[in-house]
Amino acid sequence: KAGVTQTPRYLIKTRGQQVTLSCSPISGHRSVSWYQQTPGQGLQFLFEYFSETQRNKGNFPGRFSGRQFSNSRSEMNVSTLELGDSALYLCASSPGRWNTEAFFGQGTRLTVV
Amino acid sequence: KNEVEQSPQNLTAQEGEFITINCSYSVGISALHWLQQHPGGGIVSLFMLSSGKKKHGRLIATINIQEKHSSLHITASHPRDSAVYICAVVPYNNNDMRFGAGTRLTVKP
Q1: A90 close to A1: Cβ distance less than 8 angstroms
Q2: Scanning A55, A63, A102, B9, which has the fewest C-beta atoms within 10 Å of its C-beta?
Q3: Is A42's CB within 8 Å of B98's CB?
Q4: Which of A17-31, A94-108, B63-77 has the lowest mean pLDDT?
Q5: How far apart are CA B103 and CA B34, in angstroms?
Q6: pLDDT at position B93 over 80
Q7: CA–CA dist B102, B99 (Å, integer)
Q8: How far is the C-alpha of B106 from the C-alpha of B21, rounded, in Å?
């Protein structure tokens, strides 16, 4: 069974631009969650999607958004990029809700210059 | 005060030593995860616990729900165990995950 796939692995963007990251969950998994990891703040929850619906959202500005498609693949978008958005963005998929095991992707390392 | 506290922050051990990493949390939870992150970023879920104890190879994880505390033990540590170990909790009636700051483990040959 293929694991969680995130694309691209690395990305360099300029301040003010927008970016879209993609996450393909494990086949059959319906829950996809996104996280931001920075040296200063550690890992922080961004949002969770289950069956195309956003179920929960972390404490991030509206510039951070996401969606989930009918095949469970998910995208997250960050608009008007700031230097502080430079981070490792991780997604995780689960078969159900959070009382089930989470499987993480390798992450997308975003650098904003 | 963070909702999830881990100790120690850094740990250096000699190969073969028994290692314990601790996690305390302050919220009611439905599950606790132990995660491993190697350089390069990828995260692997080691355990998901809601009660008791789980064992996988040389790794053992325990949780005490009443005391809001969990431990991760590594027996006969090996240099390949060198990584950051992260405790994460899932609060009741919520579907986010709250993370500890991580414990950086270095096992020397």
Answers
A1: no
A2: B9
A3: no
A4: A94-108
A5: 11
A6: no
A7: 8
A8: 13
Tell me the CA end-to-end span of chain A in Å, nearest whole number: 37
Most A CBs within 10 A among B43, B54, B56, hence the mutation to make, goes to: B43
The values of phi and psi at residue A97, to 5°, are -90, -165
Q: How many CA atoms lie within 13 A of B70 on its CB side?
A: 32
Which residue in the block uniquely carries the two structure tokens 């996280």? Answer: A35
d(Cα B65, Cα B70) in Å, to the nearest integer? 8
Chain A interface includes B57 (CB < 8 A):
no
| Residues of chain A found within 8 Å of residue B97, distances taken between Cβ atoms | 33, 35, 45, 98, 102
Helix H, strand E, coil C: the string for B18-64 is CEEEEEEECCCEEEEEEEEECCCCCEEEEEEECCEEEEECCEEEEEE
**H helix or E strand, kind and range, residue B88:** strand B83-91
Return the pLDDT at B94. 74
Range scoring the smallest mean pLDDT among A42-51, A88-97, B24-33: A88-97
pLDDT in tens, B3-56: 999 999 999 999 999 999 999 999 999 899 999 999 877 899 999 999 999 999
- The answer for A98, left when phi > 0, alpha when psi is -120 to 50, beta otherwise, is alpha
Size of the A and B interface in Cβ pairs below 8 Å: 65
